[in-house]
Batch of 2 targets.
Target 1
Amino acid sequence: MLYVKDLDVQGKKIFLRVDFNVPLDKEQNIKDDTRIKATLPTLNHLLEHGAKVIVASHLGRPKEEFNPEFSTRPVAERLAKLIPQKVLHAPDVVGHEVESKKTQLKESQVLLLENLRFYPGEKGNNLSFAQQLAHDIDYYVNDAFGVCHRSHASIVGIPQYVQKSAAGFLVAKEVEYLSKAILSPKKPYVFILGGAKVSDKIPVIERLLHKTDNILIGGAIAYTFFSAQGFGVGRSLVEEDQKDLALSLLDKAKSKGMNFLLPQDHIAAAAIDPGAKKHIIQEFPIPKDLMALDIGPQTIEKYKDIIKTAKTIFWNGPMGVFEIDQFGKGTEEMAKAVANTEAISIIGGGDSVAAVLKVGVSEKISHISTGGGASLEYIAKETLPGLEALTEK
Ligand code: AMP
């Protein structure tokens, strides 16, 4: 794989794919610019070496058509405050106006395109869209680790239509840390998996079964596993179409004799609400009007005991609805337990990272990944579509 520092970029047009998917408030003010700052080493390197940089990102979930609410304009304004160079903004992603702005771009100038997801070709990896993005571009640089697990046009399509493709500094750093955890993990290796998106996580768990003897499950994903086994989970979040897969994973884990642990007790309430009454549930069924929103005290102790023995830990997804204090204890206790070990610890996913920051233990974590889904998939599959696309040429 080529890295951005390997490219001679002087006078060249570079398509720089970044992850500027920043949180915005209702007035479109940027609430947190960490993601913009994370790509500055790559952007500054390109500008200092005389490149003409065309920057592109997705932002939010627009309905694949132009929508000013999801415009990258506020990002252009913030970026302009973070770098000495002028930042030009294109009102579109492809087309005549963008092409003429690309042509006029001078060395060490930045042109930020509109939101890539205004076009269905982005997510659909439409090759003619990728070709339009790549038009007149010399080299492609990917510094958007958070979306490297997505086979989108700006991730896997463009590299087919440019002379050279390379990883930016952020992608390179992520790969360096994560590959250490894959190649020579010190054992015991403990995976902690939580969060809400079962369909994102269950498919990778199968691969994790071959890598570890310890998987600790928390968050809403636990309840698809319970429901699949016929336990009454009340109104807890369950993805019905993932139940068969969940059952087959439980069977595989059992036949391997591994520690595949689901919560022993649960904190449940009638609503995801700070004022809702909290119940500790120790047995199934969970009452019909309640939903499980955090792991219970016995589960916390059990998981902490296993975490203590770990030499390598990978954590993705909170143990409960940690955004609300009374459902955040499980996640906070896991954060403290992980921080208290001497293990190599890797945390991915905005929510688990937020929990670690909230508890104030981020200094004690070996690597905090900028991509939740991407880091989980990389650990499980040992590669990502976005990384493969960089090596194919
Ligand atoms: P994910 O993006 O899949 O890691 O999911 C993160 C989200 O899962 C957070 O916003 C949590 O509030 C939510 N979450 C975690 N546990 C539960 C639960 N038991 N029920 C509902 N949502 C949950």
Target 2
Amino acid sequence: MTENQTPQRADFMSMTPEELETFITALGEKPYRAGQLFGWMAKGAPLAEMTNLPAAFRKKLEEAGEYRLPVIEKKLVSRIDGTVKYLFSLADGECVESVFMRYEHGTSLCVSSQAGCAMGCRFCASTLNGRVRNLTASEILGQAAAAARDTGERVDGIVLMGIGEPLDNYDNVIRFLRLVSAPRGMGIGLRHISLSTCGLVPRIRDLAGEGLPVTLSVSLHAADDETRSSLMPVNRRYNIASLLEACRYYFDTTGRRVSFEYTLIAGKNDGEAEADRLAAVLKKGMRCPCHVNLILLNEVAETGLTTPDRRRAEAFRQQLERRGINATIRRRLGSDINASCGQLRLQRLAEREKQEKPG
Ligand code: SAH
């Protein structure tokens, strides 16, 4: 190492308990401390609070490593249903969003996997300024730990449906899944975790082989390649047929039912004919149980796209059911705080730009 190079500080919150053991043993600490440290980090505790760890050890960790939880920049709480939306800032000033939701069967946290997104979906706020960088495993885990600490509630389930394309940050997301499900950490069952993807086909196949039985949620949004390509550029690389084949493979390998997301956009994909086509495509492509989540478009001013009314959405749902496809219209939690992801980060980017270039 040359003189002016600072040694890289270890991101120890991204380590598995086993890796942590090796790391702290090298620092001269007893191996069993790894489990304690791992448990504390899963609670989002700062080093100062880890009182059953010797002070000298905590000091060593501070010097050798980098441990910084996402900081709450902004927090919005829905008056309607108590949904909490966070804008978190990361060590380098990048911002991401998470949403904490309460359902009858438990709580769920929607986390971001990248700062921005490179996928270019036409209707989505997260991709408007492109992708800045991938999040590390600790930055994804940190959102969950910070939200649990702030709300004082257990996070029962996770959905990777925030900012970013999780399969475009594959290694860190896989690592995150192992960390968040570890019994000594947050211990969230893999069956309570959903990963949403726009359809990176080779990565869906890789995921099937990881031994991580998460629910795969696929953003379909159209039942023909022309419409889908116009809404989602990724479809030009991996078309609907190849995507459904990968979904079928995921089901065959993991035994987990695949669910499909279909955002209804007025005049683009919300007619009865499209519902018929969707049912036909799914039946032919999947030949196994699957479920469609219908989402009413959350209007993003910059895109010029609009949402159909509730009646039309209901007609679409019924048409799918008539054709033998289970479908639900997703309940919108936190509608008063605009709880879908991407918009707070955009606002923050715009505010910063204004500060940097006044007038
Ligand atoms: N990159 C992942 C996760 C993205 S967000 C994916 O593409 O699946 C989760 C879901 O919200 C996706 O289905 C996405 O297509 C959808 N979505 C994005 N912007 C939306 C908007 N403005 N209104 C409704 N749904 C939207």
